Amino acid sequence: MKQLIYADNAATTQLDKDAFEAMIPWLLDEYGNASQPYTLARKPKSALFQARRTIAECINALPEEIYFTSGGTESDNWAIKGSAFVDTVKRTTITSAFEHHAILNSCKAIERLGFPVTYIWPTSEGIIAPDTLAQIITNQTRLVSTMLANNEIGTIQPIKELCDIAHAHGALFHTDAVQAVGHVKIDVQGLGIDMLSASAHKFNGPKGIGFLYIRKGTQIIPYADGGAQENGYRAGTENIASIVGMAVALRNNCTHLEENVAYVQSLERLLLKELQEAQILFIRNGGKNTLPGLLSLSFSGAGGEAILHRLDLMGISISTGSACNSENTEISHVLKAIQLEEKQAKGTVRISLGRNNTEEDVEGIVGALTKILR
Ligand code: PLP
Q1: How many domains does the chain have?
Q2: What's the domain range around 333?
């Protein structure tokens, strides 16, 4: 059988085996509803408590600041809309032009309701420059929301500086950290951020579960009205199995963060070196400070879609842009925002290596790319 090489870890990751095993009891035997007062509910309730504590420890938050959601999209929607809808004077939201569509479309939704939104253009290296934010922010800004790391080109943003500028003007600061949580060290208190979105399937957890960190005291409306779950802010019977799986996956990734980063970066260096040795011409987008393992590569004059499909026929999964964009053959909004030349943009692919990749995978990818591009 043809060997598969999965190099699209920014789209999703393989479930951690410990996380999978930790989930099973909550699906089969311990199926009680954590909100009930009887014995069968006691263990799920305690698992929920423990998972919240584990996740909070991983990002240096308090357990009561972690709100479970269905994933990154929901967390982003909640942060943008939930913080706007408490604002009776409709102050401005500032975000960047190359956010994930979960943020951009949430911003469009509040704009339709009369909440102003201003979009910052990133630099050609994919950075949201603090100076640019400082120039446009006013005391009428309610929220600044910028991603921690871009999902197509991987650039890690100067979050602390951006957050400090927001706070100096009395605005809240939210970050979409969906690509970063479990892959780079995050300390919400050190950074000073008010809200942070995360999604388990990006850090080897199960799909359909995530969380929104909301700093204690932050003004926000509930995401879903109903029962008293999530302190009355996100009603609905808790998905204990997925929450436990998410906590185990995040704990494992955070415990092994440094070695995972070193390993994935060594694969990244190998891939770049081998491409150069094969004399394949490319440029790498996203500047110098990017997510470990995420490579946005432009092969001028080639077609990114064609490369993706030919690699797929060879058993290799990569992406042209973000997962949510793969049906769309237009140049992505991210590459447009960094003003990449059209010839380069059309020949851009995203290779995202993860902790499960091997040197053989990298050699397979380079070998296949060499065949396609020569
Ligand atoms: N934000 C970013 C930066 C992402 O990369 C993604 C998914 O690709 C999302 C949000 C949406 O996350 P989810 O798939 O959990 O809804």
Answers
A1: 2
A2: 5-13+257-373
